[in-house]
């Protein structure tokens, strides 16, 4: 059975196509609630900009990564909160951008 850590590890492969960092490196994944008894695993995430043109693709990529590791359905919710560099585990990663 997959754990939250397994899901977060899988999400390290989901990249923001403009910044070229993972949704984990950017601190975009806020909450992972593991699904039980057939319920979907739920992921709350932010976008780097409110009207990100890549939002549908990123949601799809996150959904697919979660479903691959859990073997069950996933639901991704985009939070309305604003993102900034301070949410990153290591803001120095943006130095190349």
What would your notes on this structure say?
The chain has 97 residues and is of the alpha+beta class. 25% of the residues lie in helices and 15% in strands. It has 2 helices and 3 strands, in the order αββαβ. The chain has a 3-stranded mixed beta sheet with strand order 1-2-3, with helices on one face. α1 (4-11) crosses α2 (55-70). The longest helix is centred in the middle third of the chain and has 16 residues, at 55-70. The N and C termini lie far apart (37 Å). The model has no long low-confidence stretch (mean pLDDT 94).
How many runs of DSSP E, i.e. beta strands? 3
Q: What's the rounded overall pLDDT mean?
A: 94
CATH architecture descriptor:
2-Layer Sandwich
* Strand-residue proportion: 15-25%
Helical fraction equals 10-25%
Report the structural category: alpha+beta
How many domains would you count in the coordinates? 1
Q: What is the name of the CATH superfamily?
A: Fe-S cluster assembly (FSCA)
Radius of gyration: 13 Å
């Amino acid at each position: 059975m997959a754990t939250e850590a397994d899901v977060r590890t899988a999400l390290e492969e989901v990249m923001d196509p403009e910044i070229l960092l993972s949704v984990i490196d950017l601190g975009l994944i806020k909450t992972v609630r593991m699904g039980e008894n057939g319920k979907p695993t739920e992921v709350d995430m932010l976008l780097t900009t409110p009207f990100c043109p890549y939002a549908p693709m990123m949601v799809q990529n996150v959904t697919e990564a979660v479903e691959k590791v859990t073997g069950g359905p996933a639901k991704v919710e985009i939070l309305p909160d604003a993102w900034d560099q301070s949410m990153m585990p290591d803001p120095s990663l943006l130095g190349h951008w």
